[in-house]
Queue: 2 jobs
Job 1
Amino acid sequence: MHKEIGHNAQNNVQAERQPPTRVISISSGKGGVGKTNTVANLAVALARLGKRSLLMDADLGLGNLDLLFGVQPEYNITHLLSGAKTIDEVLVKGPDNILILPAASGVQELTNLTADERLSLIAHLESLSVKFDIMLIDTGAGISDNVLFFSGASHDIMVVVTPHGASITDACALMKALLKKRGERSFKLLVNGVKSRKEGLEAYRNVVALASTMRLDISVDYLACVPFDENVRRSAARRMTVMEAFPESKASMGYEELARVVLDLPYPATMKGGMQFFWRRTFDAANRA
Ligand SMILES: Nc1ncnc2c1ncn2[C@@H]1O[C@H](COP(=O)(O)OP(=O)(O)O)[C@@H](O)[C@H]1O
Ligand SMILES: [Mg+2]
């Protein structure tokens, strides 16, 4: 099943000609705002634009990315970290050639990982010879070490909010923690579950206003908004992403727009080939932890 993931000299040659893998973490202050749906649907939308994604379910306790894709992973990240399984055995294939590194279900908190275990995880990912255009990390909600670690190790930190006050307050608390503990100053905002584009922009302005009141020296860029759409829940009940089940729905249009915006993001100036920049930052973060 995972044959094509093994080491392959030709892949490596191709990889050197490819642009680097952009690593994006998807976080939120509050749970249930739509992170997992964002990761899954963004990956499908990117695939439709010819881009290949690797998804890491880093929401270890509550990981459910596999459910949305209707796949049943035999193994998960804990088998990889214990050395029981190789990364080729742990990765599962979703639709459109999307690869998923599944989370455990409440067995072990990633926050308990030692610096060595984090570095081992990095080494496993680095050993993949298949290259990806984008790596999306579903970090889970809140300001646990898990979230801070993966957000700090990404090129871009996408923060998901809904138009509701609590999610905006908690998003600002998350950005404050990332600023104070990781020195992160640049964030990208996705507003999910909006009634209108106007409501999305209002939520963005509310985030910026609150960050300013809290005297956070950060920049927050508006990415896109995804409409509230019952088809999201309906498709999840069918173990599918809304992009697959209802491609013409309002929500699918939102995810498609998000994919286009993500592909237009400028690459960080210091980024080199492969996932090097991600690894270097992860290494720094692991050593600081
Ligand atoms: N745009 C949307 N419209 C309607 N329901 C949504 C939308 N996005 C997410 N949901 C629903 O909200 C709930 C939480 O979504 P999920 O992606 O699991 O959030 P998180 O990963 O942040 O906890 C799910 O029941 C999902 O179906
Ligand atoms: Mg989730």
Job 2
Amino acid sequence: MKTMQAAQLTGIGKPLEIAEVPVPQPGVDDILVRVRAAGICSSDLHYQDGRSEVTRLPITLGHEVSGEVAGLGENVRGLKRGDRVSLFYLATCGKCMMCSTGNDNYCSEAEMLGKNIDGGFAEYVVVPARNAFPFPESIPFAQAALITDAVATPFHALKRAAVQTGENVLIIGIGGLGIHAVQIAKIMGAGQVIAMDLDEDKLDLAVKAGATAVIHPQKDTAEDIIGAATGGRGIDVAVELIGLPATIRQAIDSTGIGGRIVVVGICPEEVRINPYHDLLLGERTIMGSADQCRADFPVIIEMAAQKRLNLSHSVSLELPLDRINEGFEMLKKKDQSVVRIVVTFP
Ligand SMILES: [Zn+2]
Ligand SMILES: [Zn+2]
């Protein structure tokens, strides 16, 4: 039996272990992918510390994956060995009503790569063939890995909010997702894009990515900056990527008439809403956005291929698999300079 190296979570709170495990075999509708890049996401830290639950141990983590097709199940058409592919991280049934209507992030049978099934911190991974989206050689593997989550998740959120040309957008939390949210909002035609974060370096990055104003909550008064930038109109779309009651409250308070608040950050605590002031007056909408859909992939790949979406500053560091725990530690320390650390395979 052929074996491979995989970085596995063997117990909550433990560093990942590099294990020698069998190379997985694709089913008839699956493909085997030789992993070339897998991004380390803060969700991985949550699986490790138990804040989010993986469904079995040991499990190979890694849900931001790109690679090359290395094997195909007998029913697979339209892909061939060597194709460069970016992987949608939910293995869905492909048949239910949610899957059929493009809401595959709500497939009741969905299993997530690196959470419910073995993921991409390994030399090989198996996924349903429909999860693979080919991308051109002009996009490096490490950038193509980020498309699957760090780009697709904020893209999906901004799509949910239906940003219109000239609208004012506030992005709260400029991490791996937020920095891409700034760029995507600009591409979607936003007028003012205001970035909010406690970290000066991240705010600098946001300006380089196209933010028109920044808010440092400990130094600035958000209301003043938003008022000046939007001519008093307020924010049309506020995207919350942190997951704290205070920042969700900030998102609501920043919006003007017709404002849409999109909650992407994971916040298990309650947030008080005043239905009259927060919703009825101003006809505001508070919505959630979870993961992304297969339908998001071709659009994002096209934006990256056309270089409208610039991911050249998004890969902060590439590490080999045997140094993956260093990447986890750096992300835990919230090293300012880090957008995404990516595990790459030669
Ligand atoms: Zn993630
Ligand atoms: Zn389904």
